[in-house]
Write a structure and sequence with these properties.
Structural class: alpha/beta
Number of domains: 1
Strand order of the largest sheet: 1-3-2-8-10-9-14-15-13-11-12
Number of strands: 15
Radius of gyration: 21 Å
Order of helices and strands: HHEEHEEEEEHEHEHEHEHEHHEHHEEHH
Number of helices: 14
Helix content: 25-40%
Largest sheet: 11 strands, mixed
CATH class: Alpha Beta
Length: 466
C-alpha cells in the first residue's frame, strides 16, 4: 500500500520538513495513484508530466495537489471544461497560483469540471464523466467534481476548487470530503475575467482534513480585503454557539428523507456539544430567484462568447458549447439589459431576506444537498433545457444563498446514508466570520471523525489492509 495515501497535506509536509521523504517521492507516489485508479474515476483531465522536483519550502512543502481546470497553470491546458477552449494552454502564472507554489504545493495536474462551471454535475462533452468513488453510477456533483472525487479517492490530499453557487460544497457533500467556501473578498485575486457570477465566486479547496483547508485558506488570504485577517485557524471552538436551522429548500420543497434524518441527527450532535439549536422559519424568497440565478449564469457565458467572437475570425459555433450553455445565453439575451438589472435586484432582495432570517445567530445549519448523490446523466448538459432547469432547481437547493450574500460556508462530511452514500451538512456564518466556522469544523471532526471513512473506489479501500 502507498504509505502516503491516507495522510493529509499537513502530515505529508511534515515528513518532507523532517527529511524523512523528499518532495520527489511524494509526487511520484501521487502520480502512481492517479495512474492506477483515475482511469476508473475520470477526475483528472491532464497530468503534469513535467513537475519540477527541486527542493521545496513552505507550509505545504512538497505536497502534491490538483488544480480545477478553471485556474490557468503555466504549461498546462486550461479548457474550463469546454470544447471552446480544448486547445487553450496557460503561459503565465496567476497571483493565486504563485502564492500556492510559494507555499510548497506541487501541481500534479488539472481536475475535471462542468462546462464553465455552470452545471452541478461534472460530466462534460469535452472530458466525459467524473464518477463518484462511493458508487460509480453516481455523480461526483460539481462543478469542482474532479477535485472532490480525487480527494475522496485518496489520489491527492487536497485540491483547489472555486465556488460560485455551491461548486466546492456540493461535490464535497456528494463525495464525503470537507469543502469550505471563504467569505467574498477574503482571498487574493485569481486573475480571471470578471462578471456578476465571478463576483459571487470564492476560491478555496476540498480536503479530507479540516486543518488542510484552514492552512490553505490562510495562505491565500488578501491582507487588503478589509476583512479581519485570520491566519491559520488550528483549534476547535470553546464557545457555546447559537445555531439557526431550517430544512426547506430555496425553491420551497422538502429534502429526501435520508437527508432529513441526517439533519435531525446533526441537531442532536450539536446540542450534545453544548450548542443551542433553534428551528427558525425558512425565508420566503422571491419566486423568480432561481430564474435570476440562471440569467446571471447566462450573462457570464455570453460574456465569454462575446470575447471570443471579437478575437477570432469566425464566431463561436454551436458545436463548441453544450446545449445547456447556449440555452442560458438565450435566457440572458432574451431578457436584455432590463432583465439583467431585475435579476440583480432579485439577488439583492434575497440577500436582505437571508440576513433578516439569520440575525442574532452565530451559525446557520442546513443540508448541503437535498438528496443523496444523483445518478450520472440526471444533470447532463445534453438534456432538454426545461427538464434540466427543473432538475437544477431541485438539486442546487441550499448553497447559492451564501454566494449571493458573500458569507462563508462549509460542507462537513458527517453522515453516510443507508445506501452507503455520503451526506454533508452545510454550516454558514456571517460575512467575515470564517474562523468561527473552521473552529466549529474542528470540533465536529473530533466528535465524529471521518478520517478513516473511505469510499469503495479509493486507494486505501482497494489496496489497503481493510
Amino acid at each position: 500500500m502507498d504509505p502516503f495515501a491516507e495522510m493529509d497535506g499537513v502530515d505529508q509536509a511534515r515528513l518532507v520538513a523532517r527529511g524523512e521523504v523528499s518532495a520527489a517521492e511524494l509526487v511520484e507516489a501521487c502520480l502512481r495513484r492517479i495512474e492506477t485508479l483515475d482511469p476508473l474515476l475520470g477526475s483528472v483531465v491532464e497530468v503534469n508530466r513535467n513537475v519540477p522536483l527541486l527542493r521545496t519550502t513552505g507550509e505545504f512543502q512538497g505536497v502534491p495537489f490538483l488544480v480545477k481546470d478553471v485556474l490557468p497553470w503555466p504549461g498546462l491546458r486550461c479548457s474550463v471544461g469546454s470544447r471552446l477552449f480544448a486547445h487553450n494552454f496557460a503561459r503565465n502564472e496567476t497571483a493565486l497560483g504563485k502564492r500556492l507554489t510559494q507555499a510548497g504545493l506541487v501541481c500534479v495536474g488539472k481536475s475535471a469540471m462542468s462546462e464553465f462551471g455552470l452545471l452541478a454535475s461534472t460530466e462534460s462533452v469535452l472530458e466525459g464523466v467524473t464518477h463518484n468513488p462511493w458508487d460509480l453510477s453516481r455523480s461526483a456533483a460539481g462543478s469542482s467534481g474532479g477535485s472532490a472525487a480525487a480527494v475522496a479517492a485518496g489520489l491527492v490530499p487536497l485540491a483547489y476548487g472555486n465556488d460560485g453557487g455551491g461548486s466546492i460544497r456540493m461535490p464535497a457533500s456528494a463525495c464525503g470530503v470537507f469543502g469550505f467556501k471563504p467569505s467574498r473578498g477574503r482571498t487574493i485575486s485569481n486573475d480571471l475575467p470578471t462578471s456578476d457570477l465571478l463576483e459571487m465566486t470564492s476560491d478555496g479547496c476540498v480536503s479530507r482534513s479540516v486543518r488542510d483547508s484552514a492552512l490553505f485558506l490562510s495562505l491565500i488570504e488578501d491582507p487588503s480585503s478589509g476583512l479581519a485577517s485570520m491566519g491559520f485557524v488550528d483549534a476547535p471552538t470553546s464557545k457555546r454557539l447559537r445555531v439557526a436551522t431550517w430544512v426547506r429548500t430555496m425553491s420551497g420543497s422538502e429534502p429526501h428523507p435520508s437527508v432529513s434524518a441526517a439533519h435531525a441527527q446533526t441537531i442532536e450532535d450539536l446540542r450534545g456539544l453544548g450548542h443551542v439549536v433553534d428551528f427558525v422559519p425558512p425565508p420566503n424568497f422571491d419566486s423568480q430567484l432561481g430564474e435570476a440565478l440562471l440569467l446571471i449564469a447566462g450573462a457570464a457565458a455570453a460574456g465569454i462568447v462575446n470575447v471570443q467572437d471579437r478575437s477570432r475570425r469566425d464566431p463561436v459555433q454551436e458545436s463548441e458549447l453544450e446545449p445547456f450553455t447556449w440555452a442560458l445565453i438565450d435566457v440572458f439575451l432574451t431578457a436584455g439589459p432590463r432583465g439583467h438589472e431585475e435579476a440583480r435586484a432579485t439577488l439583492r432582495s434575497a440577500s436582505r431576506v437571508y440576513r433578516a432570517a439569520t440575525v442574532g445567530y452565530d451559525v446557520l445549519l442546513t443540508p448541503t444537498l437535498a438528496s443523496e448523490p444523483w445518478r450520472i446523466g440526471y444533470l447532463s448538459g445534453l438534456l432538454p433545457h426545461g427538464v434540466l432547469r427543473e432538475r437544477v432547481s431541485e438539486c442546487v437547493a441550499y448553497t447559492p444563498l451564501q454566494n449571493i450574500v458573500g458569507a462563508p460556508a462549509m460542507s462537513v462530511p458527517l453522515h453516510v446514508s443507508d445506501h452507503d452514500l455520503p451526506i454533508g451538512m452545510q454550516f454558514t456564518a456571517a460575512l467575515g466570520n470564517d474562523a468561527l466556522l473552521l473552529e466549529l469544523a474542528y470540533q465536529l471532526e473530533a466528535a465524529h471523525p471521518w478520517k478513516s471513512r473511505w469510499p469503495r473506489y479509493s486507494i486505501p479501500a482497494l489496496f489497503g489492509s481493510r
